Please model this.
Amino acid sequence: MSKLLIATTNPSKLQEAVSILGGNFEVLSLKDFENIKSVEETGKTFEENAVLKAKGYFAQTGVPCVADDGGLIVDYLGGAPGVSSHRWLGRQATDQELAEAIIEKMAGVPFHQRKARIGGFLVFWDGRNLLKKENWTEGYISERLQGEVRPGFPYRPVMVVAQFDKPYAFLTSEEHEKVNARRKNLKELIREIKRLGY
Model:
């Protein structure tokens, strides 16, 4: 079975990847390697950062790598948090602080100006082949936090999913499956990886 590195230290993201890829690959995470250096996310877009990470971690491990980058885009905030989704407050904030900051900055903004999307890019690199996938979940910013802020997913409690007109955190497992951009990216990507002969 071919090895596949998921470039994350986030247990939830890894578990999600294993649930989709585990039957086809021996899935590894960054924690499976010693002395691995963090790849700096210096790109100006989610796509650039995902490519940087996939190529950077492949270069260190020699293992075909899947890396993602994404976050929340709020139209009213000029696209923020955007590519700086975890650093947009000008410091390394906690997930709870990030979520609360969105609600605070959107206080009093009328409904028609609260449009937002959450998602991003997923990239595969094996030293020869570069594959990219992009998916987004459309919605709008809630007036208050709805649901628990889970580690690694600071913006789900601030997002109402347009398809179901329902807070992201309160989606059923079936609804979540339909709108989860990362899962869509993984499922689309695995089909193309298999076509390469893995």
Remarks:
- The beta strands are 3-6, 26-29, 65-74, 115-125, 130-141, 159-161, 166-167.
- The chain has a mean pLDDT of 93.
- The two ends are 8 Å apart (CA to CA).
- The domain at 3-195 is CATH 3.90.950.10 (Maf protein).
